[in-house]
Amino acid sequence: MSLQEELQGPPPAKLIVDHVSKWFRQKRQTVHALDDISLEVAEGEFIVIVGPSGCGKSTWLDIIAGLEKPDKGRVLADNEPVLNPGRHRLVMFQESALFPWLNAFGNVMFGLKLKPGLRNSERREVAKFFLHLVGLEKFMEANVHELSGGMKQRVALARALAPNPRVLLMDEPFAALDAMTREQLYGDIQGIWEKRRKTIIFVTHNVREAACLADRVVIMSPTPGRIREVFDITLPRPRDFNSIEIAQHASTLTAALKEHGAHATLTG
Amino acid sequence: MRRTLLAIVFFVALASLWGAIVRAQIWSPVLLPSPLSVWDYVVTSGRDGTLLSASIVTLRRLLSGYAIGLAIGLPLGLLTASSTFVEDTIGVLALGLQTLPSVCWVPLALLWFGQTESAMLFVVIMGTVWSVVIATDTGVRTIPPIYARAARTMGSRPFHKWTRVILPASLPYLVSGMKQGWAFAWRSLMAAEIYVTILTGFGLGHLLHYGRELNAMDQVIGIMLVIIVIGLLADKILFSPWERFLHRRWGTGRR
Fold first, then answer.
1. What is the pTM of this model?
2. Which one of A148, A228, B172, B249 is least enclosed by Cβ atoms within 10 Å?
3. What is the pLDDT of residue B255?
4. What are the beta bridge partners of residue A171?
5. For A93, which of B146, B165, B169 is closest by C-beta distance?
6. Could you tell me the fold of the domain covering A3-267?
7. Sequence-ordered list of residues with C-beta below 8 angstroms from that of A99, at least 6 positions apart, any chain
8. Dihedral through CA B27, CA B28, CA B29, CA B32, nearest 10?
9. From CA B253, how far away is CA B255, in angstroms rounded?
């Protein structure tokens, strides 16, 4: 495999979530985390899952990643059932998932070293390419604690992109950042998505973030986690986080969330 | 530079205070020798090679016991942290034995092994292993689970996960555990050398013991000083580089 091919990489994946249910058995009670979740995700689609905390959205992401197994139903990635974690579906976590014993470059190299079929010199090239892509080429040697919150998440993004996954799973990646940094990253992530064309599943509880990033927004309600509504967002890209259209879509999403949140408390 | 100077001033002042107390003749010079006579002992026994050969004998015992202690303690600690069965058995045992002062192993070692090198090695290993087990166990349990999850999504298999994620992530605890293990090994060995009189090698503990038998207080204090200096040097040479690395990478220890 040549370096060029590696940097272009395989096409984004098609993802099918097929009637997935999940329970967590605890000592005193069993929590019904997900109830009959089904969704088809097209190749290269940007899906944002929105819901209040406790609606199982992170569990859902873990199941797609292969970190958790569904109790019922299955997940198919390119028609192959997902049984284990694999580097075709990489996860970007909320925070502090960077390894503090490695520097920025070492963190990006971690996943690359686990990818067969590359020479070490090529791995280093790929790591540099992605650190450049997220604008951190000058911070390759920086230790994790020396980076700001936004820079840490950029390194995490580079680390998730570098092994060229076909699906990128993002679990509230910007929740812990300040508003300024976040808005800058919305621009960056849209730019990178245009360039790299990944299938992205993005979990958040921020409706404006959802409206700004998504092709489709999935609204969930808690206890048990259910899909309530799916909205198409067809605004042209790149989208401006502060535009009126985004605000309008966000208020529609908020209304939907409130409606289903109330419904959930009535029935649950 | 300023810090070195201050440290020198402090220790010179300490020695002068000691000298002043000796000159005041509150205690007999047999019990409290002057700093100069202690220094004389250190210099002469340093010249004739007693000190060097005793230090080498002691350090050889210490290093071999410590190495074996680490080789047993590290994997055991990893096991107690990863399996509830081992945690409930070996883990409890380690916790209990860690509270046992290592001198308590000496009578048992003497009866089992006699006046031999093995007896000393046994005491040192017993002094080291349990604290290393506990430190490793704590280290592994303190790691945020997200590291292992992130590694798994990137294709890390169990062996890779243990060697490339769990071990480096618990490094701060491991190093402090190894440091503690070293201190315990040092203590145990001194206890062993004072009680186990063998002819296969004369260590610092033996010199200390015979200093007492001969009422040679300058020797006793001189050897104590040597033991302290070796302890300090070991700390600086063995552990300081690691701690500096950890502080730099983790961003800890800054004031």
1. 0.81
2. A148
3. 54
4. A203
5. B146
6. Rossmann fold (3.40.50)
7. A106, A107, A110, A144, B147, B150, B165, B168, B169
8. -40
9. 7
- DSSP strand E in A89-215: where? 89-92, 167-171, 199-204
Nearest by CB: A145 against B164, B171, B251: B251
CA distances from A158 to A133, A246, B36, B72 (A): 8, 27, 65, 39
Tokens standing for B83?
């399996």
Contact B168 A87 (CB under 8 A): no
Residue ranges of E strands in A117-193: 167-171
| CB-closest option in B147, B155, B171 to A97 | B147
Enumerate residues 6+ apart whose C-beta is below 8 A from A28.
none
Question: Is A90's CB within 8 Å of B164's CB?
Answer: no
For residue A241, what are its two tokens? 């986080």
**CA distance linking residue B64 with residue B226, whole number of Å:** 20
Query: Do the Cβ atoms of B174 and B135 come closer than 8 Å?
Result: yes
The class of domain B58-203 in CATH terms is mainly alpha
Contact B149 A91 (CB under 8 A): yes
* Residues linked to residue A169 through DSSP beta bridges, in sequence order: A91, A201
Measured distance CA(A75)–CA(B33) in Å, rounded:
81
